[in-house]
Design a protein that fits this description.
It is a single chain. This protein is 36% helix and 26% strand. With 110 residues, the chain is an alpha+beta fold. It folds into two domains: 18-55; 57-109, SH3 type barrels, CATH 2.30.30.60. The protein has a five-stranded antiparallel sheet with strand order 4-3-2-1-5. It is rod-shaped, with a radius of gyration of 29 Å.
Length: 110
Amino acid sequence: MSFFISDALAQAAGAPPQGDMLMQLLFPIGLVVLLYFLMIRPQLKRQKEHAKLVAGLAKGDEVATVGGIVGRVTDLGENFVQVEVADGVNVKLRRQAVEAVLPKGSIKEL
């Protein structure tokens, strides 16, 4: 009747909406799936790659740490790694602090 006001539809008391329930559940489920593929899955992949990198450390590897320190691995422990950053200067770091293994000869270029 009115142009700006839509007509109200009556519904029986206590009756669930017909077909609306599926659409109400579809949107939140879709958001969770989208969140998984855009945020959670890539982060898990990066964590696995970093764990593989840390497990594969060996003496003589040239590494860069999260803090920006570049050096050569001189000693490995279960949780710590000793890195020589200059002649006679050794720094002990957590293994998880190693960000990347550099190609051989990278330190000489610096």
